[in-house]
Amino acid sequence: MAQQIVARVTVVDSHTGGEPTRVAVTGGPDLGSGPLAARLARFRESHDAYRSAIVKEPRGSDVFVGALLVEPDAADCAAGVIFFNNVGYLGMCGHGMIGVVTTLAHLGRLVPGDHRIDTPVGVVTTTLHAGGDVSVTNVPSFRRAADVTVTVAGSAPVRGDVAWGGNWFYLVEYRACPLTLDHLATLTDFAWQLRQAVNAHGYPDVDHVELFGPPVHPAAHARNFVLCPGRAYDRSPCGTGTSAKLACLAADGRLAEGAPWVQEGILGSTFTARYRREGDHVVPTITGRAFICAEATLLIDAGDPFAWGIRS
Ligand code: PYC
Q1: How far is the CA of 303 from the centre of ligand 1 (A)?
Q2: Among this protein's residues, is 238 annotated catalytic?
Q3: What CA–CA distance (Å, rounded) separates 292 from 100?
Q4: Residue 293 catalytic?
Q5: When you count CB atoms within 10 A of the terminal residue's CB, does the N or C end of the chain come out lower?
């Protein structure tokens, strides 16, 4: 039977510390020009079907972070990027930015060196190192509130910090069980309840929850479990979550400017992070590695009932 292909989106897939990034290179929606925050709004309002077609089943899964390559607004940037996931859009994404830079290098568009990339929350400076590692100097990060106490059913009151690292986080020390894959259901349910509690407590924009505890990796300073907005957990140590963590450590005087912080994620993969001070904020630099896993063309067939993804 003849197909009715209405769109072809070329993508490059990578993973950073186990967390996938799908970069949409060509064939995505035309969002026009102007600041990326305005283009993100256009994407959300008029072209959201592309988001679900690219990252949701049957072509993707709840775990995928999508990255639409666009022309930058800032003239000195090598590219612009809008990140999205199974439920919506992300201001920034650390593991995703490492994936984007690795993808641009794979496509022959970047060589080792420094490259500025435009995002809806500001310009991010990246460095592609000769060995393949990527450093991302994130947007200024800060702690909004310390010791925010919430209650969830079946638990003593929980205390944590609300911080911005390119996304909003509620960061909580957690020792009730190890931060390992064996405890995924418990960690996910608890983090999800915390998100609802902190949202109801006056922080409605918090959409990521970061539980942290002692490391397993001998070189790491801490291990985390990060629950993303669509209830998928981050397989990587989470770049924006690590940025939010640095903001809290700096605010508590527990990490000096320029000192390394090795953040381990739930799979045992690590990011190395440092910060410099900028006024009341910190500017984190996160270093990690991505690997290219696939190149493909997504076909959108008008006759396919799930052409634009399974939209729940
Ligand atoms: O690395 O910043 C990150 C991130 C956010 C959501 C998933 N990964």
Answers
A1: 34
A2: yes
A3: 10
A4: no
A5: N
DSSP string, 246-279: HHHHHHTT-S-TT--EEEE-TTS-EEEEEEEEET
User: Taking a C-beta distance cutoff of 8 angstroms, is the pair 158, 151 a contact?
Assistant: yes
Given ligand 1 and candidates 82, 167, 233, 242, which is best to mutate, with the most ligand atoms within 8 Å of its CB?
A: 167
**Separation of 46 CA from ligand 1 center, angstroms?**
25
pTM of the model: 0.97
Report how far apart the first and last C-alpha atoms of the chain are (Å, whole number). 28
Q: Encode pLDDT of 195-250 as tens digits.
A: 999 999 999 999 999 999 999 999 999 999 999 999 999 999 999 999 999 999 99
Q: What is the pLDDT of residues 163-201, one digit of tens each?
A: 999 999 999 999 999 999 999 999 999 999 999 999 999
- Give the other-Cβ count within 10 Å of 276's Cβ: 13
Q: Residue 155: what pLDDT?
A: 87
User: Does residue 132 contact residue 289 with C-beta atoms inside 8 Å?
Assistant: yes
Q: How remote is the CA of residue 55 from the centroid of ligand 1, in Å? A: 15
